[in-house]
Amino acid sequence: MSLVKFESMLKTNSVYFFDLTEFEEIIIHYIDIGKHSLAKKALNLGLEQHPDSVDLKLLQIEIYVFENKLDLAKELLLQIEILEPNNDEVFIQKATILSKEGKHKEAILYLNKALTLTDDKEDIWSLLGMEYLYLDDYENALLCFINCVFVDFEDYSSLYNVLYCFDMQQKHQEAIDFLNDYIDKNPYCEVAWHQIGRQYSVLKRYEEALIAYDFAVIIDESFVGGYLEKAKALEELGEYKEAIENYLITLELDDATAFAFIRIGECHQKLENYDTAILYYQKAVHEDPLLDKGWLFLANLYLDQNNYEKASYSIAKALKIDESNSLYWRRYSEIKLKLSFFEEAINGFKKCLFLGDDDVNTFIALSDVLAFIGEFEEALSVLFKAQKMHINLAEIEYRLAALSLILNKKKIGTIHLINGMKIDYECHIILKELYPTIYFNKNIQKLLIDFKKATE
């Protein structure tokens, strides 16, 4: 009623009297919903009607802090502290200002002082927990948030912070133990069952995770997160049909998401339902056209089906969204090779290397394409770069041998051939597959035969 009365007053430009409690409720309401201009109007009127109210002045400090007027906040706080030196809110606001200034250790000292002055400790524990999080002190933060949870079992914000602290310390079994204690006291909490399932999933204990997720969705049949995590666990167990069923439930309960379509598509792909998989990948990119992963999945599946034109179209879409992804460029090059677009393939592999992809297969693929179109010197140069990063690889040595021999660098070619045979003799099949004229050369054949005899 006081809120309606206040807003009516604003519309009529009248001035009504409100008692102190009413002003506090109005101001806090506006602060909570982010309407700070209305909170300031209520505060100014409140201070006119109750100029000596410490509680209103503390709310004034809160607004000053929000507006980053820290000097004004400190000045007013000093006046209040003189009047009420044992007011816990004074120390809380001091801590808030220090936290804003990045002085988290000092803020903790004042919050601990506030704890000694109040019986209502829950909010202070929560603030303390956040200060410890700023310092990456997860152990002390954990203790603070646990205190909050066991005062109010429905304080899910603190519950999530407890689990965050366990996660950051990789104490997943400890998190499970904590959640089991919590569930003993609050057995019908779907959030806790969901979170215990998540901890089991992190530990790859998917059967136990499924039990927990089942409890979560039994307690709340509309709990989308429970079905989603259950579906993920079923995927990990290879139960793709059941996983699909649970993903479909999430689509019934909530708005369609590209993520769910992608997961359903992958499940169908693993079940070899390729047409259905494509359908769901298409739904994913229709739902979110900027979902590059969806376009990549389409490209991969089209590539597997030898549908290179559609694969090329899909990977181009992914690259348009994220042109700095070396994986996409590698797939682009592989597709272009299938279409015999060698220059595009070469450009794609070069882009991979430029973006920091130093995988040996990228170097080898680029050198093989360059060699195929007759760019032997450039192919050799690429392999020398690869050799600096990938030492003693037979795949590189045999290629260096073949290219050197093609370029009439017989001595260097022979050295690389011998190096390749020393590393892995059986890999000489590379010569037969890629450079048959070199392989069937009688001198090369003699080297291969003599080496094998000498090592038998």
What does this molecule look like?
- With 456 residues, this protein is mostly helical.
- Among the domains are: 255-357, Tetratricopeptide repeat domain (Serine Threonine Protein Phosphatase 5, Tetratricopeptide repeat), CATH 1.25.40.10; 370-456, Serine Threonine Protein Phosphatase 5, Tetratricopeptide repeat (Alpha Horseshoe).
- It is 78% helix and 0% strand.
- It contains 28 helices and no strands.
- The protein has helices spanning 2-12, 20-32, 36-49, 54-66, 70-83, 88-100, 104-115, 122-134, 138-151, 156-168, 172-185, 190-202, 206-219, 224-236, 240-253, 258-270, 274-287, 292-304, 308-321, 326-338, 342-354, 360-372, 376-389, 394-406, 410-423, 429-434, 436-439, 442-455.
- Helix 17 (274-287) packs antiparallel against helix 18 (292-304) and helix 22 runs antiparallel to helix 23.
- It is elongated, with a radius of gyration of 34 Å.
- The termini are far apart.
- The relative contact order is 0.03.
Keywords:
456 residues, Serine Threonine Protein Phosphatase 5, Tetratricopeptide repeat, 28 helices, mainly alpha, 0% strand
Which stretches are low in confidence, meaning pLDDT under 50 for 5 or more residues running?
A: none
Secondary-structure element pattern, one letter each: HHHHHHHHHHHHHHHHHHHHHHHHHHHH
User: Given the structure, what is the number of helices?
Assistant: 28
The CATH class name of the domain at 255-357 reads: Mainly Alpha
Going by CATH, the homologous superfamily of the domain at 255-357 would be: Tetratricopeptide repeat domain
Q: Look at the structure and give the mean pLDDT.
A: 90
Task: Give me the CATH fold name of the domain at 255-357.
Answer: Serine Threonine Protein Phosphatase 5, Tetratricopeptide repeat
What structural category arises from helix and sheet content?
mainly alpha
